[in-house]
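From the pipeline queue, job 12 of 40. The input is one protein chain; the requested action is below.

Action: predict structure.
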Amino acid sequence: MRVKAIQSGFSLLEIMVSVAIAAIALLGLGSAQLKSLQYATSSFNYTMAIVQANNAAERIWPNLCALKHGGGFNGNFKNTTLAPQIDDYSITFPANFNDDLAIEVQWPDSRLDDGLQSKLRIFAQYPTLSAAECGL
């Protein structure tokens, strides 16, 4: 009487299927990591844009009286004092200074191709000061 040998180990087909499943899983993990890095960079750029806008709003305070009553908001003041510290960012201000100032920051974001503009706008509010309160 002959006894059949019991198979031990895995067949080649089983190994190939498991390798294919593992490869697909690793590709999925790599893709998820790439998207995670893209969103982290986008979040960093957004945070830096907030810092740039708030910094510009804070730089106005020492010159508040001169800007309200001297009219020096255009030209050199915008290009030097209120310019962003990072060249990739651009800051846009209204033509004239007022108590409710809209500050808009834009930056390039080539990592995400979602078709949306990378910009934010904050509104800085300043007190109404008369010329007498400013010592003018």
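Job complete. The chain has three helices and three strands.
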